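Researcher: Let's try something more involved. This one mixes different molecule types, so please make sure each is placed in the same coordinate frame as the others.
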Amino acid sequence: MRRRDLLRYSATAGALGALAPIGMPGFAVRDAQAQGAGAAALRWGGNLSRTLDPHTVYDVPSAFTRVNLYDCLYEYAGNPPEPKPLLATETRSSADGKTHDFTIRAGVKFHDGSELTAEDVVYSFRRMLALPQGVGPAFRPFMKAEGVTATGRHSVRMELQFPYAPFFACLPMVAIMNKRLMEANTVNNDWAAAWVAGNDAGSGPYKVVPGSFRPLDSLDMEAVDGYWRGWPHSRPIRQVLCRPVRDDATRLLAVEKGDIDSTHSYIRPDQHERVRRAPGLRLVEEPQLRTYLLRVHNGRDPMNNLDFRKALSYAFPYELFIQRVLRGTAVRSPGPLPVSLWGHPRDLQGYKHDLDAARRHLDAARRAGANVTREITFTALVGFDETEQAAQLLQSELRKIGVTMRIAKAVWANAVQMTQREETSPDIWSHWGSTYYIDPDNWVGQFYSKAALGTQRGSSWYRDDETDGMLAAARATLDRAERQRLYEAASRRLVDQAVDVWIYNGMAYRAVRERVKGYRPGAVGDGLDLRELWLEG
Amino acid sequence: MSAAPAPTGNGAEAAAIAEDSPAPRRGGLARLVGLFNANWTSWAGLAMLVVIVLMAIFAPLLAPYDPLDQSILNRLKPPSADFLMGTDAFGRDVLSRVLYGARISLIVAIAAIGLAMVAGGTIGLVSGYVGGRFDVAMMQAMDVLMSFPSLILGLVIVALLGPELRNLIVAISLTAVPPFARIARAPTLAVKERAFVEAGRALGFSHARIIFVHILPNVMSEVVVMGTLWLATAVRVEASLSFIGLGVKPPTPTWGGMMRDAFENILDAPWIAIYPGLAILALVFALNLLGDGLRDATDPKLRGE
Amino acid sequence: MAEAPVLAVRNLRKHFVQRKGFPNPVTVTVRAVDDISFAIRPGEAFGLVGESGCGKSTAARALLRLIEPDAGSVTYRGEDVLAARGGALKLLRRKLQIVFQDPYSSLNPRRTIAQTLVEPMQVHGLARGADALARARALLDEVGLPAAALDRYPHEFSGGQRQRIGIARALAVEPELIIADEPVSALDVSIQAQVLMLLKDLQARRHLAFLFVSHDLGVVRWFCQRVAVMYLGRIVEEGPVEDVLHEPLHPYARVLRDASPVPDPALRAALPRIEGEIPSAANPPAGCHFHPRCPRALPACRESFPATTEPAPGRRVACHLYPAEDRASVR
Amino acid sequence: MLALILRRLALMIPVLLGLLVLVFVLTRIVPADPAAVLAGEQASPEQVAAIRATLGLDRPLHVQFVRYLVQVASGDFGTSLYTHRPVVQDLAERMPATIELALASMLLAILVGIPLGAVAAVRRNGWLDQIIRVFTIGGLAVASFWMAIMLQLVFSMQLDILPLRGRVDAGVPAPPFLTGLYVIDYLLAGNLALARHALWHLVLPSVTLALPATATIARFTRSSVIETLQKDFVAWERAVGYPRRVMLWKYVLRNSLSATVTQVGLLFGLFLSGSIVVEAVFGWPGLGDYLFSAITTADYQPVMATTLAIGVIYAVVNIMVDLVQARIDPRVAEQR
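Model: All components are placed in one shared frame. Result:
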């Protein structure tokens, strides 16, 4: 009796416990996959923007939808990337560099079939300038809404407040939107921000499948028939299903399994080997202008001491970090500018890992009265492990020379808030100098001008009239050679003053399935041109 | 909290009294040990816990390396004679970190649950004792906290106030306050109806004395048993918060944090995760066995057997 | 009434208000104790009798402020008990003690007898340390328990022994008046007599006054000098115990007496049911609460609650059968 | 019964209000500035201040709170700062995903946990009890992210019998919205194959989520069954001669269930919080995932609305638990 009962109980429990795996034939999965018609589609696993509005956000993921849903007056092309006309067929600039006349390409159609005209360009620039966030802040210092006018059905004039050298480099940031469609969807004077956040009003090669967008989660796009630039390949990708995978480990599994055709472009160096070994996968290397640097609070004791800052600069184990943590996937960047960009002095040596030198400078700082015994704080960013790894390496090296450093962690929103006031700004923190527009001003100009104080860009609290003057002059002159000279000089000066600890320019790595052909990384962010891709097999 | 006023001078005279008493004295502790004895698993749990605590205390003697020492040359080494449990992504010795990690993990768990026990227990006792609208209001407040699921509350607090050890402890303990308040309140409601509470009031005892000297010992066993179970939860919550990136700040080793770090490399260096995982398992196991034993030993309904 | 009363209760009132029901709550007022008055002289045992639910235990608790009464006054040797706060209240608590009905719940199971007896002494600063323990031993001796009991826990004792411990605890603070709330009703009949003997003994030896709450007329007749009869929150008759029980004036007291004829406490039986249902204290009949069950009800009984009169010296009754000749109000 | 429901619903209001105050205060006392994050890296301090004023973040706290209450009372949960989408829309999409996952996990936990606990109680201190004990404690100890990846590696990568992640595969159309629960909606739409497809996607995440809850339920069931087994009436039933099996399932279990059912209500909170990790690993587009990204970007409106939504789900589940309990044990209905 007891034995029989026992068997019965255990069988019941066992059956229930095993409920999950039992009776789950594998074909059920494929069965449905076939129904989903996903095979002919590109299943894009790269990061997805929070919004489809190309004006209100400007970050790495947003470039993907901006480039493929919209066209701009200029685009980046070539290597190294330079701004080249796209919707603009002809550009005439006045001698003082303040007035620019653009001729707009005729015959370009928006996705709703209407023609793209000068009115749309004017509307787009005015909208961009009116919105408080995203692209606007980069233009507003030198441009006013009244300065953009249509001078004909296909001609636009833009007048700047003062000559601004990076202007053309900034133009690929501004997507041209369908004015009629936008105005039809405007509610409460919101520039249709609510509507366009989940829809498109563009003329680009792809259009949004209505209702398919969920921020950070999913987006379906379809190829636009008769796109004005044409399709390079005979069988371009008709359907793009964006399904970003946010978990690090699962992302690799998903691309290995074929659930997605591509990951985002931050495959960590530790994972490279696995991707290279996996059948049907390849590791794509994407050169990046993005820099990585430690921001040092120059306004606070002991970091306000030049020798102390130099000690920090000598203490960081650059090669170890690049070779071991990043497994050689980045190049050392000794100064504030990406090494491949003009304006970076080719002969700049920068600092090397040298603890003896660090000790010497530390002693000098101590003699000068700097409070070198104070515990300094490195604020690492939650969710960005590299910042934590850099912090731990620096901490470990500083300990060897007798400087104590603690590591705090903050989420990005928190860190940004801290940098707004000099008192709360972190002693040291780190971030990436991402590419918004390809011009030295994007890095050195944005980070070390006095105008940047009070934002996270100015979190070094660096105040130097001479540098500020050079940067302002470089912005105002249109003479490329003169600008180069000024940026090189500013770079050298910043390095001499050891303002920050500049570490590397990265490579980005993306795992892409073999069946995806024609893949070429975009110049800015995730802005690759999907038109060039096709699927094999 | 006032301490129980043990009669001073109890020692010698009490012993003398015990001598001429025919029946052997059966104090609470002795009874507990007796019942505890009946179940060997409770002793196993206690033994495991003692080992873990000793590991934590003697970590500096036992650990072969400095748990913070990075050796980028020895990154992600599998277990070997040099590194018994291998190394992590910073080239730190996993064994040493597991040993040192016992400290923080225990501190976080014990401090958080201890706080929750004291705060929740006091709320439950006072609320149950006072009764009326105060009780209703307190229990509503507890419902508020309770309907804020533990990990989410922890997440909000730690994300917003920063992932400091202190905030982590506060966050975890806050999530555990309502259950402790409830578990302390229920028996309080029953105990306060008993005549000895009225007797205490008639004898002019203060409310504080009645609550903490007379009622508290009668609800203690429930609270303590739940405490041992929740210690395990605290360790898990710490691991989960670490997973989201909101754990104890680096490079301080904690088991939860190590699991999370290891997760990064789970596909290419799975050994890093195994050992802290086993350590968590052992701790949770020990605490649960102990909790089970304590519950069985203090549950009057189970004493009969 | 030569000697000043040790305890005087005037117009003591305790109503319980409950709100029941959702979403339309109804307020229900239970008049547990409704304007009762009596006085206890030093060394006197005063009985309070009535059926269960009549409010006698509530009255006992209310005058000790274990439940806060709503109105009325309680004075101990001229001192206002209800107004006392802090130290004064604590001092009063020493003088007025209580012995509970249930010996099982009245002792804290987690504390030894020594702790139970010593704690009150310490709280009131009467004794500490070895001195307190010695006094505890003496107390145990006084209630007839061995000193070895000190180190034990309550569960190791029988009900009668526990009641003795409860009495010893009450004595620990040297009170002048003990409220005994049905002190023997939970005990075996054979034990009851022993405990009652002990109480009687203590009363004589320590010159204690007693408020003896009971539903058992036999016990009251044996133990008390004076008695008050309660019905639905009110005292209906009061007087010397022999007089009241021999010749009850109030019809209710008579019914009560007739239902319990045996004078020997050892043979007491619980009060048998009186004819008719006991009305709820939440909804008492208008006029005299007893009139629906009263064999001698008058029309006036429906109209108003009778005033208290003193038809004979030392005897008071609240009944329309005894109209007020000299309107003696209760002191 | 209706009065019970009404009273429980009325009790929900102060709790939710309290929840709202708590989240509001928590989100406002912290040093993260949504205006600065929103403005982006190119903005100047003046531009950030302008955004702050537009959002009303420069107002006194109580003014902001009253504003928010008025807004919520009118059914408006605000707009996400970053996506410009009404939070209600996001919640409508994500809440059913979380509910579907939590319900599946709860079902699994109950179906496995109660029999396990009952068996352990009947075989108290026997070897079967010890095995179940090891299983349940293991279930309590294993971090869910660890469990998740292991299940993925085994069942999806190695055996290839279950999908890796997501609610459905890319390209599979979502069912017409009825309940928001995919499995049910596909069934209602008459598409059996897709219902099965959605069900298979549900398996790994719900097993991961259910594991600690299964363990907890098993442990509670065990102790309450032991308690019931010791009660007199069980001895009586036994004396009367009910077959053991009938007795265990019909009487003992029924009488022990009350305590376990209360636990189920509390455990639902565990599911909701556990969903953060599980949703992240399994790419499940639910509330946990949404809340986490909102917190890290200081996007207040979604944070507050999500917390409120979770509070409501939790409260509603607990009301349902009370109702179930009232059916099992009518005394409870009166006590509440």
